[in-house]
Amino acid sequence: IDALPLTEATGLPFASGKDGVAHACGHDAHTTILLGTALALATAPELPGRIRLIFQHAEEVMPGGALDVLSAGGLDGVERIFGLHCDPRLPVGRVGVKPGAITSASDLLEIRLNSPGGHTSRPHLTADLVHALGTLVTGLPALLSRRVDPRTGTVLVWGAVHAGEAPNAIPQSGVLTGTLRTGDRGTWAELEPLVRELVGGLLAPLGVGFDLHHRRGVPPVVNEADSTELMSAAIQRALGEHAVTGTPQSSGGEDFGWYLEHVPGSFVRLGVRSGQARARDLHQPTFDLDERALLVGIRVMVGTALAALAE
Known about the structure:
Elements: E1 11-13, E2 15-18, H1 27-42, E3 53-56, H2 66-71, E4 81-91, E5 95-97, E6 100-101, E7 105-114, E8 118-119, H3 129-147, E9 155-163, E10 169-170, E11 173-182, H4 185-203, E12 209-218, E13 222-223, H5 225-239, E14 244-246, H6 256-260, E15 265-273, H7 292-309
Parallel strand pairs: 2-3, 2-4, 4-15, 5-14
Antiparallel strand pairs: 1-3, 5-15, 6-13, 7-11, 7-12, 8-10, 9-11
């Protein structure tokens, strides 16, 4: 594995951690694990190769900071890449492993509607923009479920809708935003034209104009089989044979997927739940982790690094 010397390390091991402001999904924990991995490997008298540690920046900003890392040559010469992410569903000491797709592609949708506006007593003399928004809110997810193979795990969920202020006035503009996710790489490539077609079809009878901004995000994280087997074996050696468990494909997005489109690798779920209280989900302000998971994460990444170098 070609890499910068550890003394020049600038990031997340080929075990992907996070940097930046502490976030409710545990970015500070990922950074701590990465730094601990670097310190542990730096104490080795000699390594049979080199390791590059890459801090993943701007992961939450579509289409992901991994593209900046790639454009800067961050993966040049790297043979394999590995990463992990906290998982509050798993107890400390367990690591979720899955060959193939482990996350989903994630896009952002923003649909801006426009109409002449008017009075709610005379909707027949204008175009009812709020009714059009409601049509999209319910109709677009329903149509997608009939036009896309349900086995792909494609799901559209709205996060915000805004229009008007007065109860007796039909507004002239409104906006609808949400996320569109799919677990299938091929389906991801086909979604943008399909969404545009369906939005146009739903709004055509209503006389409301629209402007669709479909911002493509990140591809699915697709774990390569050999790298996943290597990482799984390294975890068992580091933590014991019962440490490895299966994990389902998540509908969440992760820009580590961009790395795996350039080099083989694997991405796992690190258990952080103490079992003392009700598990808190990621991206909740109450998210917390059992700090014993930090040492577990370091052992996972150091063990994986040494196993990869020994190939």
